[in-house]
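User: Sequence in, structure out. Go.
Assistant: Echoing your sequence, followed by the structure tokens.
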Amino acid sequence: MLAIGVAAQAAGTLLVSTPAYLIVLLHTQQGVSLTQGGLLASAPTFGMVLTLVAWGAAADRWGERGVIATGSALSALAALAAAFTNDFVWLAALLAAGGAAAASTNAASGRVVVGWFPRHRRGLAMGIRQMSQPLGVAAAALIVPPMAAAYGVAAPLFIVAAATGVLAIAALLGIENPPRSAPAAAGGTSLAPTANPYRRDGFLARIHVLSVLLVVPQFTLSIFGIVWLSVGLGWSEAWAGAVIAAAQFIGALGRIGVGHLSDRVGSRVRVLRWVALAGVAAMVALAASAALHWDALAAVLFIVATTISVADNGLAFTSVAEAAGPGWSGRALGLQNTGQFIAASAVGPGIGALVTLAGFPLALAAVALAPLISIPLIPARDRDSSSE
């Protein structure tokens, strides 16, 4: 079930990431501006923002299996339809619809981990589950540029449709809903009402806000990394895509490492603080290498910064699920991702405009402010309501 959850969300991330790797082709061959390209890249995340809480509430009420299978199937249909359009506006709209459907795996697959794994193994399990996002981005970096250059924009979208369709079937056949720890309501379809964890204290709200800040470097590097390496530094798209794929793969392993570390030290938020501090240093160093045009060092620092930028997600995600408890985790995880994807939707056009005005070095330096501001918001202690 963990493997299916990872693969399902990776396929959804492939859909969400695909337009970012079309920016160079659209910019160089069709004259699309970086701001317009950023808007297209943000279309799937905008769609996700609209449906994340609803998918989470559906998982709370009806279970994870049906939510993941249904959302993956709808993602496949949206990607297939997008492959047959040549209109920029329709392409953006269908990608937004695909993102809205792909949001199903975000909250539901996290609930599977929290429901089936005990706390002392949950950090590692969630770290494995969180591999899905960088693996999906890595797949997009390797697949989309060469496929689009050789066969057009439709080709990678056909691959996305096939991947999400296969995973819809796998989820339906291979995932079982975790046992419910609270008695079911009438009809046996939902948990009995539980106390709203947001009224208890500010823990969840603080995790949500700091996660919004920490997602800014992640999406800056995933959306504009290939543009910076190929246009800013003059690399070929193939080499740029290979560096990005390597960075995302190493980042996936890093998520497992920090998840396991949080199990060992017995705290999610302590490790989260270490990651935020490292993120500030990594973005400043990357900005300096960009300003000095140290290409080889820039590639190494890009991999380091990308690895750090994705390391916080599993820690924050696990913290939210544990603090919310089984009756609220779907909605809480939906809110968690909603805030992150609102920020991600703004990163595309916002950073695109900033790069156009100030250049890559200053833009990367500005992004370092986001993890810096997040540090005072990190709670002092964890909160666990997962057994309530």
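User: And one key feature?
Assistant: Residues 2-178+198-377 form a domain with the Growth Hormone; Chain: A; fold (CATH 1.20.1250.20).
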